[in-house]
Amino acid sequence: MEQRIRVIVIDDEEGMREGMRRTLEKQGYPVDLAEDGESAIRLLKASAYGLALVDLKMPGIDGFEVTRYINEHAEGTVVVIVSALATVEAAVEVTRHGAFDFLAKPFTPKDLLRVVERAVRQQALLADRQQFLTELASERNLSRQLINSMHEGVIVLNLHRAPVLMNPTAEGFLGVSYREDLSLAELTLSPDVLAAVEGVLGGAGESPRTLRERSGERMLEFLATPYLRGEEKVGAILILNDVTLEWQAEQEKSRFIAMVAHELKSPLAAILNYVNIILTGMFDQQPEKIHEMMGRSKIRGEALLDLIRDLLYLNQREAGKIEKTLERLELKEVLTGQLEFFRVQAERSKINLRLEADGASYPVLADRKDLDRIFMNLISNGIKYNRENGELTVRLAASDGTVRVEVSDTGIGMTPEDMKNLFQDFYRIKNPLTSGIPGTGLGLATVKRVTAECHGELSVRSEPELGTTFTVTLPRA
Amino acid sequence: MDTKGANRVHSGLDRDVRRTELPKVMIVDDDQDLLAGQKAFLEGRGYQVETASSSAEGLAKLQGFVPDIILADLMMEHYDTGFVFCKKVKDDPRLAAVPIIMQTSAPKELGFTLDAYNERARKWMKVDEILTKPVPLEDLVGKIEQHLAR
In this predicted complex, what is the ipTM? Predict the structure, then answer.
């Protein structure tokens, strides 16, 4: 059985009160009684009733006032006036005061129950409506919160092209704060975006498409869709997406590919140029000239091979295909081995290699190949960019849980301008001093990457004509 | 074996010899080998060749003489250094009439140096010709002669 609503009977005649109570309680309604307006209001304050049966004529606070009180303070309570004033005027009057129905005295229990049942149905509707309104309010609140917390910008335009909603993200993207009289023009959208909005509002039935537009430092993606109420189009919704990072990555990638293509083609162009010249036969009588061109071609070919190897390595590394084996390594031994590897090349270039280490042990936890990438590159640079009878010193020091390696040369050095893009892929300092030195432009960029992967830091200081020192700091094992 | 190339070498030389003064070519390229190779080749074909390995060096040398034609690389210190170089040359009234052939390894397919192949951009830059490296030697001589004849 369904839950019976709670009823309050307000009447100054005891006989009436008791009569109504008996009838209602027999039907299972919980009933409270009040003998005048004051006690009724007390009871209404204390508990909630689904139905109030109110006598109109009472001493003190009368039925009209009680009705008004109920309408103002107890919205879920249906009021039925019970009165002997059974005229049409009186009925209209009480309805005007917010009562739902009217029961004329005298009445039979059947009359009472009929009116009560009608009131109960009304109460159920009222309760539903109340519930619905509450839900709607919280729904609206939720949508608003969702829209406001969205990562995407949202702008809603009505049919008059006036912005009626703009979430904080959209405000941030466009640098415009929402206010009621904000105009579409103030959003300074691009002609393409405005055309898309018109397309949606004009009902050309165009399928929505995303547009990319620069907006200051940002790259924004705009999507215009119709704002529908049921079937009816009432405006346009503009969704804004910040795709700056994605766009930058695309730019960076195409820049990288263009650079790679350029760097691969350059040595080949030089080699083919030499070969073509030799093939013309114009230097057939000058073998030393041909020999020189072949020698240079060999160097460029080898550099090209180095570059391809570096690129493949970089690619594997980026794809996470390089397996790492972390082991506790003694950096002093690793560096000694590496310097030994370069001994012959250094002697040929008349560079003196030195290892300075005041302590006995410099342990690090690292992958041996990573350490090779870092220090072989730095040592090789220190030899290549040195001068005849120069020095290359590898200095080891330990402090506060770190191991510091300095690779110091007495070479041509760099200006602050030179160093600006030093760790960028393919960056090579180009001047008469460096022009004959082969390199891929990937060495230092790789050193930087690998050092970071080893949780280390890389820094550089340099003085033109005096030399350069790279410092790698790694966590001590 | 193809002997056409060799024949052309001789015909080129013969033609050059008839000139009262050898045409002066300035090559600006940061690739030492390309510079050395083209210099050797063009000298062999009867041109006077001056080289520069950077835009700055090229501009400095152009203070001292006016070549009959300039061959310039596009990507040198920076990816558009060659353009900036050409613009500076063409803005100098003394050098404005000197034709410039740009040689580049930059791939046009990638859009990165797209503007180099864009007709409007080329006119604005006043580059007379853009050739993709490696430029076949006979094409290079052909283009040089074509521009010198104008």
Answer: 0.77
Q: Do B41 and A289 touch (CB under 8 A)?
A: no
Chain segment A269-321, per-residue pLDDT in tens: 999 999 999 999 999 999 999 999 999 999 889 888 988 888 888 888 778 77
Residue of B2, B8, B32, B33 best to disrupt the A interface, most CBs of A under 10 A: B33
pTM as predicted: 0.56
Picking from A254, A279, A430, the nearest residue to B111 by CB comes out as A254
DSSP per residue, B81-113 = HHHHHHHHHHHSTTTTTS-EEEEE---GGGSTT
Contacts of B108 (CB under 8 A, 6+ apart): B114, B116, B117, B132
Q: According to the model, what pLDDT value does residue B9 have?
A: 43
| Best residue of A257, A273, A280 to probe chain B, by most B CBs closer than 10 Å | A273
Average pLDDT of chain B to the nearest whole number: 78
- What chain A holds in terms of domains, given with CATH numbers, is 7-144 (3.40.50.2300), 150-242 (3.30.450.20), 246-318 (1.10.287.130), 326-475 (3.30.565.10)
Token pair of B148 as six digits: 């010198």
The mean pLDDT values, 10 residues at a time, for chain B of 150 residues are 42 49 91 91 94 89 94 75 84 92 71 54 72 86 91
Task: Determine contact: A291 vs chain B, CB below 8 A.
Answer: no
